[in-house]
Amino acid sequence: MALLSFEDHKYFAAKILSLGATESLKHGSSHELEVLNAVAARRRFGLLPILYDHFAQEGPCGVHYVFLTATFCSDVSTFRASAPTGRLGIHIVKPIVACVVEGLQALHSLNIVHADIKSDNILFLGPDTTDIEEEIARDPPSVEGVLTLDGTQYPILRSQPFQPLFSWDVAPHIAETITVILSDFGAAFRADGPKPFTDIGVFALRAPENIIRAECGKEIDIWAVGCLTYELLTGENLFQPQTIPNLTLDESLLLLQFSVTGEILSKDVVNQSRVRDKFFNREGRFIQSRANIYPSQSIKERLTERCNGDLTERQINAAARFISDCLRLNPRDRPTVDELGLHPWLETAFRGGTDLSTEPTTTPTPVPPSFIRPTPISPTVIPPAFILPPFVPPPFVPSLEPTREGRRRCTTVGFEGLDRVPIRQCDEEDAEIHSRYRSYITTIRSMSKSG
Questions:
Q1: pLDDT tens across 368-427, in order?
Q2: What span is annotated as the signal peptide, if there is one (predicted)?
């Protein structure tokens, strides 16, 4: 069943599931198709991939399920790796994180947990039909090998991912145009539904409640946003546990999280653990706490050590505060995604990334985020109450006309005009930014095509 029209697209991206992922989808242990359908039914979500069609394809080893979406450029992980130091400028990191947060707002409003936020799953917007056809004419697809299976030969095509139109050293005024898509819902699940019995997400990015097999909800996505932000700024994972004699890697990772956050897990989280006796004694204290070899080093201290010279003291303080708010050890202390979208650190995400001069120059001791539940700037900020019942595929084809609604910050909502560039629909007070945005995109494209 085609959910959306093909009229406006000549090329599509096909995600071909492995045999194992296809079986998981059939047996209900994977909810990827359900999530894609739910997102497609809410066409106004501009920072998530939209499903155009899905079907089963017979392969030499069995049946594979295939999802068709719009085409995108390469992932943020590859982009970060292109920087000589592996680190990205704060004027690049802020719009990327802001887009991820807005994509999460859409998912969480559907009561869906992404559960696998990492730089590999964040894709840059584009390319359009013109970009694709120009690239095919310049560098046609080619075969780089042959796979022989059961006597039959299959060609192996050379990988040719599209790169964004800017590089790792892009200027701040161009970085304002960065738009990324939060993709890959293979690990996603409904917040009010059954939770996965296996480990959730990449090991180094797992939230503490995930490690001890306690209740996991939307809060694990907030934790991952904090880890992602640190990675993009420093070029390394924040949590890289060492091998400690007589300790498992899970125990070592927990000790490291205790040292970085300076917090301990509350008794209610400990009591939720399905393997409580493995990690905690009768009083709820971590059994291996005396084996902690990690120095007590705050996020601010780590950022200062890793980014000294790249970031000013004000930038380090502001970034540390944002990351620390995401990485509260107890889930209930973390902000919701809507509250995170109002965080002062993201205020200038699409305005060059400069940190506000009114921000304090010292990082406070860990306390619940001070920005929680501020007075909304716009009455049209996405509300947190879009809780859907179990998904039923829509009986109609959604309109292709994008919903235009004012947003506190610029938000990609559709495509318009012959230049086929994303439009950012803004409040009247942001009209100047909107105008500059279109001018920057036009300049980028003209420079790219002439160069």
A1: 444 443 333 333 333 333 333 443 443 433 333 333 233 333 333 332 332 333 333 334
A2: none
What is the H or E stretch that residue 432 is in?
helix 431-450
Is the bond into 127 cis (omega within 30 degrees of 0)? yes
Q: Name the phi and psi angles at 57, rounded to 5.
A: -125, 125
Q: What is the CB neighbour count within 10 angstroms for residue 198?
A: 7
Classified as helix, coil or strand, 323 is: helix
Extract the residue ranges of the chain whose pLDDT is less than 50. Answer: 1-4, 357-438, 440-442, 444-445, 448-449, 451
First-last CA distance in the chain = 42
What does the block give as tokens for 96? 């990327």
Q: What's the CA gap between 155 and 289, in Å, rounded?
A: 54
- What confidence score (pLDDT) does residue 6 get? 56
| Cβ-contact 69, 4 below 8 angstroms | no
- Its sign, for the CA torsion 201, 206, 353, 424, is positive
Q: Which residues pair with 154 in a beta bridge?
A: 147
| CA gap 193, 414 in Å, rounded | 32
Q: How far apart are the C-alpha atoms of 287 and 202, rounded to whole Å?
A: 24
Amino acid at 193: G
How many angstroms separate the CA atoms of 23 and 228, rounded? 30
pLDDT at 8: 60
In this predicted structure, what is the pLDDT of residue 319? 96
Best CATH choice for the domain 74-125+169-388 from the list 3.40.190.10, 1.10.10.10, 3.30.530.20, 1.10.510.10? 1.10.510.10
- Domain segments of the chain: what residues? 1-70, 74-125+169-388
The CA–CA distances, whole Å, from 80 to 131, 228, 435 equal 22, 12, 28
CA angle (430, 431, 433) in 5-degree steps: 65
